[in-house]
Amino acid sequence: MAVNVPKEAPEVTSLKKDVLDKAENSIINVFPKKIQELGEVLQGSMFSLSDPSQIHCELNIPSQLTTPTNNCNGDPSNELGSKKRKLDTDRTVADVYGNLIQQPDGQKVVPSFNEVIGCNPKLETIVDYLKPQIITVIKHCSNIKLWIQLMIPKIEDGNNFGVSIQEDILSEVTKAESDASSYLDQTTRYFSCRAQMLKKLIKYPHLTDFRRAINEYDEKVFFSFQLILTELRNIYVVLYDVIIKNYLKLKTPRSTNSSSLY
């Protein structure tokens, strides 16, 4: 009984052509330009520091700060809900932000903190540049993965050496995509970790170790971001190299002339 093999839908054919065109354009035209661009950035002013301490920034958190005097003396008209902001003038930042202040009437209040503590401007600039670069690498890897998968021929016995090359390169692209995804997580985690350290400093502003820890953390992250950008450049170099070297096998994994095997 003959089996009717369904024809490929026009929508799928159109999608495959679009994927093939974009992937080949990325490899042949985009990758060399990205290699040059990232190399220039790594050698440029963004990552050129003669002294690691240049990455430090002013924290604007004084080691001692007294809270303003509150003269409401329990006046109900000055209450905010059930929280009364009656503070002693000799309270320090550690008292204010480390603990709730016990009032004579048994209530506890937390004064507000009106000062804005900004991000490290140098690292913020680096993240603003680095994050889109990571996303671009992930998109290129995703498209090239699909490109290779679409070029894998139907399963047959023998003459699969070219297919094994496709699978090896596919593994390399998958690893690159996974690495780039982990880099994206690092850029996001930096701000949340630094915020936690700043919370500690606000609670204990008199401890110099917390100030030093934040500066040391900024230095560490700076070199980490520099390494990430280097790895992104290396991903482009490695993928470009391995794909160009095996371009023929990727495009035609099985030889059409069987006699050439003997």
In short:
By secondary structure, the protein is mainly α. It contains six helices and two strands. The protein has a two-stranded antiparallel sheet.
User: Mind telling me the CATH superfamily name of the domain at 120-253?
Assistant: Proteasome activator pa28, C-terminal domain
Arithmetic mean of pLDDT: 80
Apparent shape: elongated
Instruction: Briefly note the structural class of the backbone.
Output: mainly alpha
Residues in β-strands, percent = under 5%
Counting DSSP H or I runs of 4 or more residues, the number of helices is: 6
GO molecular function: endopeptidase activator activity
InterPro entries: PA28_C (IPR003186), PA28_C_sf (IPR036997), PA28_N_sf (IPR036996), Proteasome_activ_PA28 (IPR009077), Proteasome_activ_PA28_N (IPR003185), Proteasome_activ_sf (IPR036252)
Keywords: Proteasome
Domain Proteasome activator PA28 N-terminal: 8-62
